[in-house]
Amino acid sequence: MKKISVLAVTAIVAMGISATSCDSKKNANLKTAVDSASYAIGVNTGANYKENLKTLPGGEANVDALIAGFVQAIKGDSTKMSMTEAQAYLQTYFVEASAKESSKTKEEGKAFLAENKTKEGVITTESGLQYKVVVEGTGAKPAATDRVKVHYTGTLLNGTKFDSSLDRGEPSEFGVSQVIPGWMEGLQIMPVGSKYIFWIPSDLAYGERGAGQDIKPNSTLKFEVELLDIVKPDDAKK
Q1: Which of 67, 162, 203, 214 is an active site residue?
Q2: Other beta carbons within 10 Å of 152
Q3: pLDDT, tens digit, 9 for 90 and up, residues 153-212
């Protein structure tokens, strides 16, 4: 129930926000040190977790409703919704919201790939992988059992960059069979010295599980890949 705990923290955030918006410090009636400490906790927590309000799936959080729920709980009033009811509702809500978001992401990827395959220079393989040759190398093509050295940049369809060996300042090395299926297939198409652009459907990428904070479930991904070398066993030991 990680997301429920996040929302619980967000309720505390709302108290910090309400202290600065609905009831300014001037009107907070801070008569004692405890009053000021309470106010400070709200401000501190609100500043640390304010961004969580933007991550509620399904739309922007209703801050007024969130504050009302927090006040209800802290006063022990369960007339509108008990803690058990709240937890049950959130379980259902997050599962349904996640499913809707995942479905939307998948459909957006399908629509993109359908249009992209009609563009000049874009080749679509039998699996659905799409690629475009930027530079065609003259070296050997790696096999599934090989280890390769590459430079790459990965982005979402909206242009958000989620990973780049170029940003790290050094190429990456890995086995061809150790990466996502789209990479595994694509690398074996490329001669050494090539630079390709790959558009990888979600089922050839991270599928329904997604990856990290940036790659949502069912995301279609774009990679610019430069195959620098096939790493020989002796080179890998150095």
Answers
A1: 162
A2: 19
A3: 999 999 999 999 999 999 999 999 999 999 999 999 999 999 999 999 999 999 999 998
Strand partners, 164: 153
User: How many domains, the chain?
Assistant: 2
Going by pLDDT thresholds of 50, 70 and 90, the confidence category of residue 60 is: confident
Q: Check 146, 163, 214, 229 and give the catalytic one.
A: 163
Whether the CB-CB separation of 63 and 12 falls below 8 Å is answered with no
Establish if 116 belongs to a structural domain. yes
Q: Among the options 94, 152, 196, 198, which is catalytic?
A: 152
Question: Both ends of the chain: CA-CA distance in Å?
Answer: 45
- Asked about 4 being catalytic, the answer comes back as no
Clarify whether 152 is annotated catalytic: yes
Pair (70, 112) in one structural domain: no
Is residue 162 annotated as a catalytic residue, yes or no?
A: yes
Last residue of a domain, one of 80, 96, 121: 80
Spatial contact of 228 and 165, defined as CB atoms under 8 Å apart: no
Sort 129 into a burial class: Cβ within 10 Å, 0-12 / 13-18 / 19+: buried
223 belongs to the catalytic site: yes
Our measurement of the distance from residue 82's CA atom to the centroid of its chain's CA atoms, rounded to an integer in Å, reads 32
The whole domain housing 228 covers 107-237
The answer to whether 163 is a known catalytic residue is yes
- 13 and 55: one domain? yes
Q: Which of 4, 180, 189, 197 is catalytic?
A: 180
Identity of the amino acid at 185: E
